[in-house]
């Protein structure tokens, strides 16, 4: 029994990772704890405490998303040129400053500055630490340690723990004051800053001294990776419907109060199931997890459309959507993050991860605008769900072609030994 528990325990698997990789995985838990201390309550603070109108609130939330996802390509390229450690540490400092500004802000100037700073910070540290994990996990896999997809599964589980812990702590602190919540989040990142400063080795950057444009040029010449990034971008668009389409559906069904519980449900599914599912996917599907996983994402929207169309009671469509979407996420993300390193030839991982995230941000921006227009149009409530299903379904078809035609994604590459 103890062996079985250790096999599936995130803590047990963490013990198999070298110290820098453990730091990155546990750092992800801290990142999400600090971030979700604030994010779920930010709009409420802006409207209830500061009395801002909906247009300004929407602008601030849009600025945060754009300054984060839109600039990932820059943070990734800087990580290649300057190294993970300095870029990540700079990101932590910028996020601490952003939370401090939000704690002090009572007017639009400091609010905009704090909001943009929190987004830019993630654009610096996220692609840097993901590239670092990919690089070290790829080397560890070649010595018969945990595979890169297993390392990213642990990374995802740790992040989901933060998604659960952060809002719980934030809801408790919000009873005191939003400024206290923002200061607490800054404190979390101060701890992360110290831990990374002490624990992340000082190593020369893989492309030190080379122009940043050289990294982007290499990415843009990698046609297989660009096709992969375009197909993968529908994942972030799909995930963002937890924030856009899901609340609308719950409100339509008279179950708006269940939104928080469904976020917790999604996080718990990942925490409990990600590591064992990653093992099953590795053994049974290999790279076919990509087309199959995107097909599951499409199914989450199609099933919701059908349930809404036939008048399924209360929150049933929303619950089915969250559970199915989460399963698709768990199948796709670890395998895709491993595939980035293979498609990049283990070079310029920061630039590749950055461009991958920015592509997802652009897809989420454009696709969510289209879906928002459909939701506002007042047509059949099942229509937006059915239309959105076409996007991950298209990705499933493209991924199926790529898996067959791109050598880095062939089954004998990804499934040999203990692969992603």
Automatic annotation (TrEMBL):
<dbReference type="InterPro" id="IPR036259">
    <property type="entry name" value="MFS_trans_sf"/>
</dbReference>
<keyword id="KW-0813">Transport</keyword>
<feature type="transmembrane region" description="Helical">
    <location>
        <begin position="224"/>
        <end position="244"/>
    </location>
</feature>
<feature type="transmembrane region" description="Helical">
    <location>
        <begin position="349"/>
        <end position="371"/>
    </location>
</feature>
<dbReference type="InterPro" id="IPR050171">
    <property type="entry name" value="MFS_Transporters"/>
</dbReference>
<feature type="transmembrane region" description="Helical">
    <location>
        <begin position="21"/>
        <end position="44"/>
    </location>
</feature>
<dbReference type="Pfam" id="PF07690">
    <property type="entry name" value="MFS_1"/>
</dbReference>
<feature type="transmembrane region" description="Helical">
    <location>
        <begin position="178"/>
        <end position="197"/>
    </location>
</feature>
<feature type="domain" description="Major facilitator superfamily (MFS) profile">
    <location>
        <begin position="20"/>
        <end position="407"/>
    </location>
</feature>
<keyword id="KW-0812">Transmembrane</keyword>
<feature type="transmembrane region" description="Helical">
    <location>
        <begin position="50"/>
        <end position="66"/>
    </location>
</feature>
<feature type="transmembrane region" description="Helical">
    <location>
        <begin position="289"/>
        <end position="312"/>
    </location>
</feature>
<feature type="transmembrane region" description="Helical">
    <location>
        <begin position="383"/>
        <end position="403"/>
    </location>
</feature>
<dbReference type="InterPro" id="IPR011701">
    <property type="entry name" value="MFS"/>
</dbReference>
<feature type="transmembrane region" description="Helical">
    <location>
        <begin position="318"/>
        <end position="337"/>
    </location>
</feature>
<keyword id="KW-0472">Membrane</keyword>
<feature type="transmembrane region" description="Helical">
    <location>
        <begin position="256"/>
        <end position="277"/>
    </location>
</feature>
<dbReference type="InterPro" id="IPR020846">
    <property type="entry name" value="MFS_dom"/>
</dbReference>
<feature type="transmembrane region" description="Helical">
    <location>
        <begin position="87"/>
        <end position="105"/>
    </location>
</feature>
<keyword id="KW-1003">Cell membrane</keyword>
<keyword id="KW-1133">Transmembrane helix</keyword>
<protein>
    <submittedName>
        <fullName>MFS transporter</fullName>
    </submittedName>
</protein>
<feature type="transmembrane region" description="Helical">
    <location>
        <begin position="151"/>
        <end position="172"/>
    </location>
</feature>
<feature type="transmembrane region" description="Helical">
    <location>
        <begin position="111"/>
        <end position="130"/>
    </location>
</feature>
């Amino acid at each position: 029994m103890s062996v079985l528990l250790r096999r599936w325990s995130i803590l047990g698997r963490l013990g198999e990772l070298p110290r820098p990789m453990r730091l990155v995985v546990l750092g992800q838990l801290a990142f999400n704890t600090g971030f979700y201390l604030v994010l779920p309550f930010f709009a409420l603070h802006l409207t209830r405490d500061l009395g801002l109108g909906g247009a300004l609130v929407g602008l601030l939330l849009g600025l945060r998303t754009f300054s984060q996802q839109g600039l990932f390509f820059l943070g990734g390229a800087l990580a290649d040129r300057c190294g993970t450690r300095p870029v990540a540490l700079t990101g932590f400092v910028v996020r601490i400053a952003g939370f401090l500004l939000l704690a002090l802000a009572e007017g639009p100037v400091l609010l905009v500055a704090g909001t943009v700073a929190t987004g830019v910070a993630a654009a610096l540290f996220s692609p840097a630490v993901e590239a670092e994990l990919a690089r070290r996990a790829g080397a560890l896999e070649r010595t018969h340690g945990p595979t890169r997809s297993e390392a990213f599964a642990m990374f995802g589980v740790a992040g989901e723990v933060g998604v659960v812990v952060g809002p719980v702590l934030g809801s408790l602190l919000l009873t005191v004051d939003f400024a206290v919540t923002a200061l607490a989040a800054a404190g979390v990142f101060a701890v992360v800053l110290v831990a990374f400063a002490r624990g992340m080795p000082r190593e020369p950057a893989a492309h030190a001294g080379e122009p940043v444009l050289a990294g982007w040029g290499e990415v843009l010449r990698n046609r297989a990776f660009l096709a992969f990034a375009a197909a993968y971008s529908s994942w972030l668009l799909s995930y963002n419907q937890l924030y856009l389409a899901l609340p609308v559906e719950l409100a339509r069904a008279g179950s708006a109060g269940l939104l928080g519980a469904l976020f917790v449900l999604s996080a718990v599914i990942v925490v409990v199931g990600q590591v064992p599912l990653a093992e099953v996917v590795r053994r049974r599907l290999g790279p076919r997890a990509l087309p199959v996983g995107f097909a599951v994402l499409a199914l989450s929207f199609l099933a919701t459309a059908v349930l809404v169309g036939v008048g399924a009671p209360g929150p049933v469509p929303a619950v089915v959507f969250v559970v199915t979407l989460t399963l698709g996420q768990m199948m796709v993300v670890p395998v895709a993050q491993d595939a980035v390193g293979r498609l990049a030839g283990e070079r310029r991982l920061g630039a590749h991860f950055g461009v991958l995230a920015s592509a997802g941000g652009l897809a989420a921006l454009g696709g969510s605008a289209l879906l928002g227009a459909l939701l506002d149009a007042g047509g059949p409530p099942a229509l937006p769900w059915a239309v959105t299903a076409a996007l991950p379904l298209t990705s499933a078809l493209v991924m199926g072609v790529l898996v067959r035609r791109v050598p880095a994604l062939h089954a004998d590459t990804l499934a040999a030994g203990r692969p992603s």
